Amino acid sequence: MRLSSLFMPTLKENPADAQVTSHRLMLRAGLIRQTSAGIYIWLPMGLRVLRKIEQIVREEQDRAGAQEILMPTIQPAELWQESGRYEAYGKEMLRITDRHDREMLYGPTNEEMVTDLFRSNIKSYKDLPLMLYHIQWKFRDEIRPRFGIMRGREFLMKDNYSFDLNEEAGRISYNKMYVAYLRTFARLGLVAIPVRADTGAIGGDLSHEFQILAETGESTLYYDKAIEDFDLASLTGDIDADTIEKLQNLYAMEEEKHDADNCPVAPENLRRAKGIEVGHIFFFGTKYSESMNARVTGPDGNLVPVEMGSYGVGVSRLVGALIEANHDENGIIWPEVVAPYKVGLINLRIKDEACTAACGDIYQRLTDKSVDVLYDDRDMGAGGKFADMDLSGLPWQLIVGPRGLKNGLVELKNRATGDRQELTLEDAINMLGA
Ligand code: 5CA
């Protein structure tokens, strides 16, 4: 992509209404624009990141044996009246009336709809276990939308729902998701602390929140440092139930519930940090299957309500959370796996024929190797180009200027470390294309 034609409206000044770093940087780097409180347009640079995160989340869901579907955003009120949540959800639910005066709603979550899908199609334990997920926009009319897309009203969520014959099998599904979450966040380069949580509006008796560590997090956590040290590699291959249980039993608690006098962790191993909730998983047994009559025949021929869990990841919130965890005073520092482009190619002198020919060549050859390159081909000063490239956070900057080029050299800068090296054009292409 050529920067001269990319729709990337950047801002020089910090927007006054943005309180946290990620919100400021997302506006300044031209990732999003607000249309109403808590509702945003995703611009090209933001959307590319959102899609990459979504894909990593999807791959780990698929790996855990879940199947992707796509349920609608608009739901009929009847399903929620059946479960009893239509009234209980209160003002957070956006209610809509269609032209036939039917009550509809913009889904804040999908337990009811997926339970309805299940009961109309699955009758026997032989079709279990089953995990269905989708990645779909949700609406919650938050009283105080804030921090940009981190607490929006419209937001993208991955929600998965598990169906099992009995509690024991249900807990196996829960643990599969628990591991899938650890893998997902590790792939994103984030340290995620699983914290035992209340089940709130979703209901149930077993729940974990996944909090990633960031100074601007909304909650304060106390946790055993062994969680950070935990070696994810031990979770590859088959899932070992004992390992998961050991990990789930390590101490992690929100500040409000942390009791310093009775804390089981030795002071030298106890960590205190701020966290951002990026995922939440629940095992709630038969809460919805009883009220909505979702039953299967067991091996003994008896009808039993199916055991369920639900598992959410805040996909759009993760964009903000990743920025909170990866930035400096000059802008965003994207981990390579989610970066909108891997390389920012900076042409320092567009009017210099040799520079422009070299950049054209590099751009073509890297593109041929399937490397995503953003080519700054604008006719403007170097200072502005460097500032914009630092702000956008692309992992590698390849800088081409007339002086170096005379000796066949270009400069490669690593955005995260600031390290610079001079190398030949060939070496640069080989390195970035590897
Ligand atoms: N049905 C369950 C799990 S599928 C559920 O809705 N869980 S939740 O309410 O905890 O939401 C799941 C995740 O969505 C949260 O962990 C959070 O990362 C994200 N999320 C929730 N509310 C918002 C919001 N207003 N803005 C952005 N992300 C949100």
What's the gist of this structure?
Strand 17 and strand 18 form a beta hairpin. 32% of the residues lie in helices and 29% in strands.
Number of helices: 14
Mean pLDDT: 95
Task: Give the helix level as a range of percent.
Answer: 25-40%
Give the overall silhouette: globular
CATH class of the largest domain, please?
Alpha Beta
- Tell me the CATH superfamily of the largest domain: Bira Bifunctional Protein, Domain 2
Class by alpha and beta content: alpha+beta
* CATH architect. name of the largest domain: 2-Layer Sandwich
| Number of beta strands | 23
Write down the Rg: 25 Å
The fold-level CATH name of the largest domain is BirA Bifunctional Protein, domain 2
Our measurement of the CA-to-CA distance between the termini, rounded to an integer number of angstroms, reads: 20 Å
Low-confidence stretches: none
User: What number of domains?
Assistant: 2
What small molecules does the structure contain? 5'-O-(N-(L-cysteinyl)-sulfamoyl)adenosine
The major sheet is characterized as: 9 strands, mixed
Q: Any descriptors?
A:
BirA Bifunctional Protein, domain 2; 14 helices; 434 residues; single chain; 9-stranded mixed β-sheet; Rossmann fold; binds 5'-O-(N-(L-cysteinyl)-sulfamoyl)adenosine; 5-stranded mixed β-sheet
